[in-house]
Specification:
Helix content: 40-55%
Number of strands: 11
Strand content: 15-25%
Number of helices: 11
Radius of gyration: 28 Å
CATH topology of the largest domain: Serine Threonine Protein Phosphatase 5, Tetratricopeptide repeat
Strand order of the largest sheet: 2-3-4-5
Length: about 325
């Protein structure tokens, strides 16, 4: 009589290799005796070093394994975590325990003549729940909680969720920041944006991928479906620079403005804020360079009359 075999995998897909050297064996706990070949005490799952190939088998000696049946469907890379397998109620469950929510691919197998035969699979994506909780947190101004909800999900089935989530977090942080700034609470205002920038996907957007790995900013935005909101992102980030300056967080303001002028070189305000922060931090020579960049941009845009008098005085 066939038995339903249920396998739970939590990993993304790769293809089988030509030659497979299995390096890891996960025994199935409480395996029934009729699942075992003769003179074999335990049976379970085998996979190679990179978790790209899987098989059903058992250990021999000297770290060698006997393959009973290769699991010939698209295998998945196991996520970091502790991996287990056990038998319960005519079901074998194979899973990797990880400290975060993850998209789960539930693979069902039937047991026929002591071989695993693929039957079907379904997918559970926890990102929907995280998005709901994150959006609720954004409505109350709890930017840190929204970030935690997004970061609780590993490998959402749609990376668009991450892109749009980033925009939602930045937009909300900017709105709450503007509200605090209107009440002269600039430390709180910068805090909202700082919390948003802690989201690793936004951190990549605004620092790591662009600066450390020198990926062109426009290419990064296009690759992640964000090219249509580039101008909005620039305004939001510029507001953050203003919040930092007004909060007297000069060191943070300077470092952030240096980044900002590198990805938005034609945006005038970041050059102004950088000059003001440098000047206030007793660096008039460096401030003058930023002011001159600011003046050049303003003249090019026909906004020469809007240049503050303090800027003109400081470049003399």
């Amino acid at each position: 009589m066939n038995k339903l075999i249920f396998i739970l995998f939590v990993f993304p897909a790769f293809a089988f290799g030509q030659k497979v050297q299995y390096t890891t064996f996960i025994p199935v706990e409480n395996i029934p005796a009729d699942f075992l070949p003769k003179k074999v005490k335990e049976v379970g799952f085998l996979y190679n070093e990179y978790a790209t190939d899987f098989a059903w088998g058992y250990p021999l000696t000297d770290n060698k394994y006997k393959v009973i049946k290769k699991i010939d469907f698209n295998p998945f890379e196991i996520l970091s975590g502790d991996t287990y397998a056990y038998y319960e109620n005519d079901t074998i469950i194979f899973y990797s325990r990880v400290p975060w929510k993850a998209t789960m691919f539930n693979y069902h197998f039937t047991w026929n003549k002591k071989q695993l035969i693929f039957h079907y699979f379904n997918v559970y994506d926890p990102s929907e729940e995280a998005i709901t909780l994150a959006e609720a947190a954004l409505k109350t101004g709890d930017i840190s909680e929204a970030v935690l909800q997004y970061e609780s999900v590993f490998y959402p089935s749609s990376y668009l969720d991450m892109s749009m989530g980033s925009i939602g977090i930045l937009s909300a942080a900017n709105q709450w920041g503007l509200k605090a700034a209107a009440e002269n609470r600039f430390t709180d205002a910068s805090g909202y944006m700082s919390a948003a920038l802690n989201y690793y996907f936004i951190s990549d957007l605004t620092n790591q991928l662009v600066v450390n790995f020198e990926i062109p900013y426009d290419d990064y935005l296009t690759d992640h479906g964000l090219e249509d909101v580039k101008d909005s992102i620039g305004v939001w980030l510029t507001n953050h620079a203003h919040f930092l300056y007004r909060a007297d967080s000069l060191e943070d303001c300077i470092s952030f403005c240096i980044y900002l002028v590198s990805v938005y070189p034609d945006l005038a305000p970041p050059h102004l804020f950088l000059g003001d922060a440098l000047f206030k931090d007793n660096n008039p020579t460096e401030a003058k360079h930023s002011y001159l960049e600011y003046i050049a941009i303003m003249k090019e845009q026909g906004k020469e009359k809007e240049i503050p008098q303090r800027v003109l005085d400081r470049v003399k």
